Amino acid sequence: MTVKEEGRQQIDPNTLTVVPLRHPWRLTAVVLVVVGVLLIVRSAIFNPNFQWPVVATYLFNPLIMNGLGQTISLTFIVMVLAIVGGTIAALMMLSPSKLLSIPAMAFVWLFRGTPALVQLILWYNLSLVIKNFSLWIPGYGTVFSVSTNDVMTPMVAAVVALSLHESGYMAEIVRGGLKSVNRGQGEAAACLGMSPGLSLRRIILPQAMRMIIPPTGNETINLLKTTSLVSIIAVGDLLYSAQSIYARTFETMPLLLVVTFWYLAVVSVMSVAQYYLERYYSRDETRHQGGALALVWKNVFRFRKNEVVA
Amino acid sequence: MNTVATHHSRFGVAPTTMVYAAGIRKSYGNLQVLKGVDLTVPVGSVACIIGPSGSGKSTFLRCINHLEEINGGLLLVDGDFVGYRLEDNKLHELPPSAICKRRAEIGMVFQQFNLFPHLTVLENLIEAPIRVRKEPAAKATAKAMALLDRVGLADKRHAFPKQLSGGQQQRVAIARALAMSPKVLLFDEPTSALDPELVGEVLEVMKDLAKEGITMIVVTHEIGFAREVADQLIFMDGGIVVESGDPRKMIASPKSPRTKEFLARVL
């Protein structure tokens, strides 16, 4: 058998080039998606029923602004309460005492297992079962008493229901974060004479934060959207304000677009905040490469994955 | 100022003893890990504990600073109990805050280093002196820099633990323990998690400490280190001290056949 030699000419290895593999199906898919997106955008722009000028007039309407303020402050209050409540529940769940851990687990089971909407309506109607809240000291008598109907305003019912619901989720997130920290960290802190509280504050929690921040950010974003449920019990949030306007003017679609715009705007701001918070808590991990926006920009207009260049 | 009581005389222990252990017992459920361990470590001396894994040597070390509670026996560090207060011939359990004060005097170096990954090297060293001892930051920093200089890592003060090699991390861990000026230093297999080529740099630091007269109890597999540095060598197996004595003599001519067998395998 003879070896067939193809050509006699010597090849300089440095002149060799690689011809990239073509991806015809990928190209087809890209074309289909681009055409689809263009059609949707065209319909949105040229269909007069969207009433874009009406959207523009209501975008900064005082009633809408007031609703947006309510939505944001409700989210903020509920999230703060949920973080406090969730952390307490998580610490109780991790306690060696069953008398602390079992009630905390029952709390999480109860409030994470029921829909937020059901809890909202339930708390709003609390006066059906409990007529009054009163403090009564034996031998002294009633110190004070208030009617449930006076206390359980729509806003209070919303705060109570949503923060209990959210606490259940936060408890699980905090517990997972605390458990992710190596046991040796607590022991090392103890050996340096740190008290359990100091060790939790300075050593365990800062490390647990890395695991806690990303899901908490997601929860906050989720909560912002969940607060739209409170329109059911007549809290004047963003959705309720829009509804109250289109109930009069019948400009349903433009007002829902206004609502959509504001939710998206707030969520976008929160996502950026979450990015920087995450980066702060993993400051020993990251060698920072440019800003968040530069990263997004670089990835949006990329057709192929970065390939390893030999 | 000195609130630590000295019970040496009441138990007939020499006043120059740093760690005194007699008949230490420890069980996990039905499993008895320590079956009566005796050890006396005089001030300024180095004790090395060797033995096969599962012999209870690490558990014993963790009993000394009360990371594990003992089930029986007498354990005194610098003449006092670590987790208890002696009153009317009864041992009263101390609250966590009081145990912490006692633990701050007993330094510990772990096999897995256990540096705080979210703090820089310098922050690792000054955290406890500032928060626990309430030292002013400037003073704590100056002391930390001197210690880092001593372990040869002053230039790494702003690095995070993850950016250091295992040997460098362990040297920082030793400096961190020293930053609390402990009366005794416990080492729990300090070189077992290291690449062989990095073991030497950690042992060098430990040898220097021994020369300076720091009381040390070292659980180790480094027989060479034990022979060179230790004042007494303890061989543990099955939860008891099988043999103890002068390291050179013991390594050259072990009395117990069990010791002989173990040394033959590790040498």
Write up what this structure looks like.
The complex is a heterodimer of chains A (310) and B (267). With 310 residues, chain A is mainly alpha-helical. Helices cover 67% and strands 4% of the residues of chain A. In chain A, helix 3 packs antiparallel against helix 4, helix 8 packs antiparallel against helix 9 and helix 10 runs antiparallel to helix 11. The longest helix of chain A is centred in the N-terminal third of the chain and has 32 residues. Chain A starts with 23 loop residues before the first helix and ends in a 10-residue tail after the last helix. With 267 residues, chain B is an alpha/beta fold. Chain B is built from nine helices and eleven strands. In chain B, the strands form three sheets. Chain B has a six-stranded mixed β-sheet, with helices on both faces. In chain B, helix 6 links the parallel strand 8 and strand 9. In chain B, helix 3 packs parallel to helix 5. The N and C termini of chain B lie far apart (48 Å). Classes of the chains: A mainly alpha (310), B alpha/beta (267). At the A-B interface, helix 8 and helix 9 of A face helix 2, strand 7 and helix 3 of B.
